[in-house]
Amino acid sequence: MSRYISVDLSQRIRVSAQNRCGYCLSPQRLVMARLEIEHIVPLAEGGTNDESNLWLACPLCNGHKSRKIKAVDPETEKTAPLFNPRTQLWCEHFRWSDDGTRVVGITPIGRATVAALCLDSDSDAIEVRRYWIEAGWHPPEAL
User: Fold this and answer.
1) How far apart are CA 88 and CA 78, in angstroms?
2) Do 115 and 74 touch, CB atoms closer than 8 A?
């Protein structure tokens, strides 16, 4: 299957995602790299380039996600599917830590996603969020 995604489709996804990462909510205006069109179900796992399988992710989240579609919930030790930013609401599965630097999973899906994407432990992301908080840009509102 081709990895090519048309400019028109890419633009529709960026608008739908409000130009921010579906996992850590980082907005394009604050991310030094271009947000990536990610496959919710990776092509290598049978996913397609259909719009319903595409969303935005920052390079850190997309890099950690890689081919993953599920992970172990550290609380229950059971496998759970990863969060689907296209069909699920962020605020139903996550919240911000009290200091606003880490994403905290509040459901099995949320906790499994936090673990798989290192949303609570990527030191680079945490450091950058500290600066964003000082500037008054973070944490963003969840949809």
Assistant:
1) 20
2) yes
